[in-house]
Amino acid sequence: MNLEIKLAELKTKFENRLSSAKSSDEVNKFKVEALGKKGELTQILKQLGSLSVEERKEIGKKANEIRDQLNEKIELKRQEITKALVEEEIKKETIDVTLPGVDYLVGTKHVINIVIDDLVDFFRSMGYTVDDGTEIEDDKHNFEMLNIPQGHPARDMQDTFFLTSDRGNDWLLRSQTSPNQAHVLETHDFSKGPIRMISPGRVFRRDNDDATHSHQFYQMEGIVVDRNITMADLFGTLNITLKHFFGSEREVRFRPSYFPFTEPSVEADVSCFFCDGEGCSICKNTGWIEVLGAGMTHPNVFKAAGVDPDKYQGFAFGMGMDRFAMLKYGIEDIRDLYTNDVRFLEKFEGES
Ligand code: DAH
């Protein structure tokens, strides 16, 4: 066959192959097959020897042209393949800015903490210190030093979780935050100033959980001790505290009550915020809601801690944080405060 025709065929064959090539590996392979040392073009050129000088020149020139043309096409094809690859890559990496973002669950402050933090800020602004105390206490501080000796009926009111230890049953989960009164009285150095302290924290009682009872709940204890502290100080302090927390339009009243560690003892009520004092099911038609217990520190409590009751007087109070939260935010079941259902917890987002 005429070499010129062979060359033309070679060109068309490789042009076709090139146009269908999908990868640069394929292109390289075709290049070697067509133009490589042992490639088809070389095979054709080997046959030049059988031609006349004129023809050799002619065909040689043609062969060079075809080699150049094929090289150029190969280069173009390579560029085309690279470009397609880059474009595909870019397409894959495109960011759709209209897609919705990933929803992060950001925790919210627990409603009990909202209440505690609010009151802590308030009492700090009046110069109170804050001492959390410990959840594990001994019988001495939880009961004895608070004028609740063994066999005292007040122990029954606070059915306690005792912890067994080789020292006997004198370790317990505190049933109230009042033991912090005993601790501060025992350790306070009055030459440095009076006691003005609050103790927020968790307490425990052997109660069966229902809508209004929980085996764990939160209290905030308060105690103020100095010379010449009177009941007027107690009334004034609790009056502004309750108005701060429940609203300045609330009325506050005090009723006589009994606690072993205070004498006299009182309970404080605020006017019912559901019916505004008219009487409803929440306030049991009295128009008032009981919110805390308080009183003047009992001389026996001072004595047990080594503080002279003739020199010092004091008042103390105990507030239920769960009750405060439930009343202020209209929470009907105390268990909601402890089951940590996110739907419940989220309701208080932004409250403080
Ligand atoms: N500790 C009492 C209780 O858990 C609450 C209480 C009442 C605390 C009167 C006080 C107080 O400091 O003076 O029921």
UniProtKB/TrEMBL annotation:
Compartment(s) of residence: Cytoplasm
MF GO annotations: ATP binding; catalytic activity, acting on a protein; magnesium ion binding; phenylalanine-tRNA ligase activity; transferase activity; tRNA binding
PROSITE patterns to which the protein is assigned, alphabetical: AA_TRNA_LIGASE_II
Family the entry assigns: Belongs to the class-II aminoacyl-tRNA synthetase family. Phe-tRNA synthetase alpha subunit type 1 subfamily.
Catalytic activity, reaction form: tRNA(Phe) + L-phenylalanine + ATP = L-phenylalanyl-tRNA(Phe) + AMP + diphosphate + H(+)
Name of the protein in its database record: Phenylalanine--tRNA ligase alpha subunit
Top-rank taxon, per record: Bacteria
Lineage: Bacteria, Bacillati, Bacillota, Bacilli, Lactobacillales
Domain Aminoacyl-transfer RNA synthetases class-II family profile as annotated: residue spans: 119-327
InterPro entries, sorted: aa-tRNA-synth_II, aa-tRNA-synth_II/BPL/LPL, Phe-tRNA-synth_IIc_asu, Phe-tRNA_ligase_II_N, Phe_tRNA_ligase_alpha1_bac, Phenylalanyl-tRNA_Synthase, tRNA-bd_arm
Binding site for Mg(2+): E263
Cofactor note: Binds 2 magnesium ions per tetramer.
Record-linked SUPFAM superfamilies: Class II aaRS and biotin synthetases (SSF55681), tRNA-binding arm (SSF46589)
Keywords: Aminoacyl-tRNA synthetase, ATP-binding, Coiled coil, Cytoplasm, Ligase, Magnesium, Metal-binding, Nucleotide-binding, Protein biosynthesis
CDD domains tied to this protein: PheRS_alpha_core
Main localization of the protein described in the UniProt heading: cytoplasm
Organism of derivation: Xylocopilactobacillus apicola
Coiled-coil portions: 60-91
Pfam families, sorted: Phe_tRNA-synt_N, tRNA-synt_2d
Enzyme Commission number: 6.1.1.20
GO cellular component, one term: cytoplasm
Subunit structure: Tetramer of two alpha and two beta subunits.
Gene behind the chain: pheS
GO annotation, biological process: phenylalanyl-tRNA aminoacylation
